[in-house]
Amino acid sequence: MQRGISGIALVQVLLIVAVLSILALYFTQSARNQVHNATLMVDKAQAYVELHNAEANILYALLTEDKNPQSRKQTVNQSNSALIANWNFHDKEFKYNEYVNIALQDLRGLLNLHYPNKQRLTQLLTYSGLNDYDAQLTSQQIIDWQSLDARSDYLPNNVTARHAAIHDISELKHLGLQPKQLNALQANTTQYKRGLFNPMTAPDSLLNALLSNDVASHVIMLRNAKQLTVNEFAQVTGFHESEDIILYPSNLFKVTLQAHVGDANIKKVIYYHLQPNKQLVVNIVAVKAQ
After folding, report:
1. Which domains does the chain have, with CATH numbers?
2. How confident is the model over 22-54, as pLDDT tens digits?
3. DSSP letters of 106-159?
């Protein structure tokens, strides 16, 4: 009888020990999670600080520094010297500091999606993988999709035209465009600019679409080495300033900032229209944050 009672007591002790062990594991894991969450919050707060600091400095530099590709002037603010030495206006990411990477795109270097040059748009779509016929058809459909005309011979019968300017690339899914073409349009076109095209600030992918392989590779190599001049670019590519071409950066920019601190990652994309000589100096056209 005594042995049976001892056995029951032992089982009870073991059960209590097991429950206490489970509780200890739970509290330990809960404490770890709380520490991780607290650390993540601190990292995220620092990431926001780093991102906003970079945003302010890049905006100041865009407003005050000379962006002329021919110029070799000293920077206005010596604290911006490292930034100016690394920046470019063709969306090639560069390191701002140990926490922040930045990419700048002169919107003049992208194709205008609202009023596209059909030949260049067709070349881009061909480069993205479409055959010549489908690329030309898709180019015309993109134009007709936005046209005010009530009727189009190029849109499918089951597709109703927007009859207005596109607000976002994703709208073109209605035309049956595949992800590869949508991504190419997202990277190389914009709905935030009008007027002249600057191929000197076109992204690498757009240069590859518009130029032969050898010429594009040569231009990209010189540009990455910061040795590309307007005269050489015009001579090699055949792009000369004309009624729709200009080889000088605009005041329309897409600024992509990515901050990484610990496990925290923040991305922000800002579209600026800068007017240094106007009352409204900084016009934020659009902001996209992740």
Report:
1. 40-109+250-289 (3.30.1300), 112-189 (no CATH)
2. 767 776 777 766 666 677 688 899 999 999 999
3. EGGGSEESSS--HHHHHHHHHHTT--HHHHHHHHHHHHHHH-S-S--SSS-TT-
